[in-house]
Amino acid sequence: MIDKQVKTTADAVAGVRDGSTVLVAGFGAVGVADNLLDALHEQGAKELTIVANNSGNGDYGLARLINAGRVRKVICSYPRSGDYSAFLNAYRAKTLELELVPQGTISERMRCAAAGLGGFFSPVSAHTKLAEGKETREIDGRLHVFEKPLKGDVALIKANKADRWGNLTYLRSARNFNPVMAMAAELTVVEVDTMVELGEMDPEAVVTPSIFVDRVVVVGANA
Amino acid sequence: MSYTPLTREQMAWRAAQDLPEGAYVNLGIGIPTLAASYVPKGREVIFHSENGILGLGPKPEPGKEDPYMVDAGKNRTTLVTGGCFVHHADAFLMIRGGHLDVSLLGAFEVSEQGDLANWTTEDPQFPPGVGGAMDLAVGARAIRVIMEHTHKSGSPRILRHCTYPLTAPACVKRIYTNLAVIDVTPQGLFVLEMVPGMTLEALQALTEPKLHLANTWQALEPPAARAA
Hints:
With about 220 residues, chain A is α/β, with parallel strands linked by helices. Chain A has one domain: 3-Layer(aba) Sandwich (Glutaconate Coenzyme A-transferase). Chain A contains six helices and eleven strands.
C-alpha cells in the first residue's frame, strides 16, 4: 500500500544534503511551509541555495535559516518584503549572494525543469541590466533572452489537504508557487493541515497530482 | 492662476475611468491598487493579481480578513463572485502571453519613448526588487503608468531618457500624473488633460521632453475636485 505520510517534520526533511537547492514556496507569508523550514533548521543542512519569491520574515522559517548562516545564495524576485532584516543583514555583510530574477521567469524556469525542457527564450528583461551576460535572440522582430531551467534538489510545499498517495489541494491564494515548485524538485516534501481518505478528493479538483509528491506530514491542530 | 494637484485617490480614479467593460487588468502595488475602488458602477472589469488570483475583489470589511487572501502588495483582499485561483506559472503566463488588456503600474521615471524605470534606484544600502514588474511591462497589451508628475524635489519624472535602470524599453502608452493625462506616441508626448488652472507652459516647465497639446484636450476634474 502506498503511504507517503511521515510522522514528523524531521522525518519529512531527513536526508537533505549540504549545498542543496531548496525551492521554498509561498508569496510573502502566505503558503509558506514554515514548519518544514524550521525542521530544516534543526536538521542542519548548510550552504543552501534558496529559491523563493521573497526572502523571509522576522526570525522564523527562511529568515531563521539565513540568520543561522545556512544559506549561501537566494534566488528571488523581491527580497524587500515585510520584515526582511535577516536577509538585509546578510546581504549587507556579503555573506550571501542574491540572484534577482523576474517573478514570471523564476516560475517558468521551474516549470521548464519540471517539463524536462532545456530552457526558453523570453522577452522579459530584454534590453535591461538583468539580461546582461545572457544569450539573446531576435524572434519575430523582438529581442528575447535565454533562460535556463531551474531544478530543486528539494521542494518545501504548503498544502491544505493531502491523501496517502500525495494528491494535494490548496487554500485560495496560498496556492501561488506551490504547484510549480512541487513539480520541479527531486524530492518534494509537503506539510498539510489535514489528511483525507483516498478517493475523498474530487478528482476534478486535485491541483497537484500525487506523481510529484514524495513525503507528506500533517502540521498544526491535526498533527 | 493657481492649480491643485490630484490626490493619490484621484489619480487612481482617473485611471479607472479608462478601463473598459470586460477588460482583464493587473494593478501594480501602490497607487494602481487603489484604482479597483473607482471603476464606474455597472461596469465589469476583472482584476488579476500576480500571485494567482483572477477576480480580485475590494479590501475586506474589518473582521472579515482572510489570511489566505492577499494581493500583490501582500495586503488582505477578497475574491469576487466568478473569481478563481491559478498557480504562479499560469498567473505569469497570463501576464507574459498578452492575455491581459491593461497593466497599470507605478514608476520612478518614464521617457519620451515610453521607456519605463520602476524597479531599482540602485541604492547600495538595499537589495533591488523586481517582482513582476518586467513581466508586466512586456506582456500586457496596454501599459499605463500612474505616478506623481515630479519627484519631491520638483525635478521631472518624465524625461528624454530614464536615469534609472530600465524595466522595459518603449512600453508605456499613457501616463496619469497628479497634474495631467499624457499619451506617449511616435509623434511625441500629447497632453490629453490637465488639472484646472494648469497651462501647457507651466506643465512643460515640470516635464523634460517637449509636450504637445492634443486638439481635444480637456480639464482633468475628478469628482471631489468639481465645484460643489
